[in-house]
Design goal:
It is a single chain. The relative contact order is 0.07. The strands form five sheets. Strands 16-17-21-22-20-19-18 form a seven-stranded antiparallel β-sheet. Strand 1 and strand 2 form a beta hairpin. The longest helix has 71 residues. The chain is built from eleven helices and 24 strands. The two termini are 27 Å apart. Helix content is 36%, strand content 20%. By secondary structure, it is of the alpha/beta class. It is found in: Cell membrane. One of its GO terms (cellular component) is plasma membrane. It holds the Pfam family LRRNT_2. Keywords: ATP-binding, Kinase, Leucine-rich repeat, Membrane, Nucleotide-binding, Receptor, Repeat, Transferase, Transmembrane, Transmembrane helix.
Length: 502
């Protein structure tokens, strides 16, 4: 108990020091009072590990002054202070001073001075729209996935892993250079000044017409060179694609012969569906589970032992005929994971299309969220979110010539099995209906699930962090979105699953 009191006192002094400067009138943080910040309604705080403050989320509260007191909290994992009026310097951050910090979001403030952050395990670093100056030499964030220092006063070269981020992460710093921005000049200041003077004299002699003529010629040369590069690239890419497709065709044929079995009567069975018989399936008693744009789903009892399966009768007008449909369904039928509803068989005959899945007895996440008689605490919701993320990651990582995505992730397509685990269902059907297969996929996002499952009171800071991860998944530029593997990693850190696994 004395040790816990010491922790309370240690965190409390730092929090009250921040409050004194950030909210001198007491209007923004009126709930920050009492001897223990981990008990009572302290706005924006979350505690773990023997009542130590781990998450602070105080966005858009018109806070002022320095942030240094908050960074004295040794167990802090998440600090978000966006859209305030905070000023002063960001103290040096390292594994010695802030070993647990994973998310640091300080956008839209008035912070200044150099950026000195050496946190190999940091996942999010957003310092855009401040007044930071100096270079990025002291920024070492090997695992960061979301990085933005745009609209500051930074200068010098962008080096190392930071050069892999898009230009939007650095815009607004006129003195920054290097990939992904224009390259840096290696000449000295005197040489640059001398060159500038010489160029000015030369331009004066040539006149406007001559200059325009030279610029036009340069532009033509550059255009021709780029055109040649694009043609060569297209040819090489086409040849490589043909080789890959040829190799895939052989592999696909072999795997089809090994894994899939034409049972007869238009029924194709996948792993776990070898004993299904089409006559039993068509004669089975059935009840409607739900209707959607893809078709109607039934619960069917197909033998005397009471084996239940879910049968989706597809809306035939939405799906193409022939080999394209069969090929896409075979790809779906080969994917197996503990958080994905398994496709056991497909029946196609005389315009009829039936997909046979494992039956999930506990309904969908959609029904649970809207069932007032069923209580879902925050831990239960976290388990579901992680299950969905792991299922999507497995879909994305499944080997195939074409990239796999779900295409329609939402609470009604997340089912709960007999053990209460989340299972992703109906994956790929929307893309098959629209494109014939996975030809034009877009990155899946857990944003819909996050917003629906986050809840109001418990886990507020974790819920806010999850929304931010979801926002990263919905960035307009596909190259700026994290992969599902990266999303699972961030979620594990935010929701505490990484520590439990360790």
């Amino acid at each position: 108990m004395p040790q816990h009191n010491h922790h309370h006192h240690q965190d409390l002094s730092s929090l009250l020091a921040f409050k004194a400067s950030a909210d001198p009138l007491g209007s923004a943080l009126p709930t920050w009072s009492g001897p223990n910040p981990c008990s009572g309604p302290w706005l924006g705080l979350k505690c773990e590990q023997f009542d130590r403050v781990t998450n602070i989320n105080l966005d858009s509260l018109s806070l002022t002054g320095p942030i240094a007191p908050l960074l004295q909290l040794k167990h802090l994992k998440l600090l978000s202070l966006q859209r305030n009026s905070l000023s002063g310097r960001l103290p040096p951050l390292s594994n010695l001073s802030n070993p647990s910090l994973r998310i640091l979001s300080l956008s839209h403030n008035a912070l200044d001075g150099p950026i000195n952050v050496s946190l190999p395990n940091l996942l999010v670093l957003r310092l855009d729209r401040n007044r930071f100056s100096g270079g990025l030499d002291s920024v070492r964030v090997d695992r960061v996935l979301d990085f933005n220092v745009s609209e500051n006063r930074l200068s010098g070269a962008i080096l190392g892993r930071l050069s892999g981020f898009p230009p939007s992460s650095f815009f607004g710093n006129l003195a920054l250079c290097g990939s992904p921005l224009p390259s840096c000049l290696s000449s000295s200041v005197n040489a640059s000044a001398s060159t500038s003077t010489t160029c000015t004299k030369t331009l004066a002699k040539l006149g406007v017409t001559s200059v325009l003529y030279i610029v036009a010629i340069d532009a033509m040369v550059i255009t021709v060179v780029l055109a040649v590069i694009l043609v060569v690239y297209a040819c090489v890419k086409r040849q490589m694609k043909r080789k890959v497709m040829s190799r895939y065709s052989m592999m696909s044929k072999n795997r089809s012969e090994e894994r899939d079995r034409e049972v007869g009567g238009g029924l194709t069975a996948f792993e776990g569906g070898e004993n299904l018989r089409i006559d039993c399936l068509l004669k089975a008693s059935a009840e409607v589970l739900g209707k959607g744009t893809m078709g109607i789903t039934y619960k069917a009892i197909i033998d005397e032992g009471g084996l239940a399966v879910a049968v989706k009768r597809l809306t035939t007008s939405r799906f193409s005929n022939g080999k394209a449909f069969d090929r896409c369904v075979r790809l779906i039928g080969r994917v197996r994971h503990e958080h994905i509803v398994s496709l056991r068989a497909c029946y196609r005959n005389d315009g009829e299309r039936l997909l046979v899945y494992d039956y999930m007895p506990n309904g969908s996440l959609q029904s649970l969220l809207h069932n007032n008689g069923y209580a879902m605490d925050w831990m239960r919701r976290k388990d579901i979110l992680m299950g969905v993320a792991e299922g999507l990651e497995h879909i994305h990582a499944s080997p195939s010539r074409e990239p796999h995505v779900h295409g329609n992730i939402k609470p009604s397509n997340i089912l709960i099995d007999g053990q209460g685990n989340a299972r992703v269902s109906d994956w790929g059907l929307t893309l098959i209906a629209h494109n014939g297969c996975f030809d034009s996929p877009s990155q899946d996002s857990t944003m819909v699930v996050t917003e629906k499952a986050a809840g109001g009171t418990c886990g507020e800071a974790e819920a806010m962090a999850m929304v931010k991860i979801g926002m990263m998944c919905t960035k307009e530029a596909a190259g700026e979105r994290p992969t599902m593997r990266q999303v699972v990693g961030m979620m594990s850190e935010v929701l505490g699953f990484a520590e439990e696994a360790a």
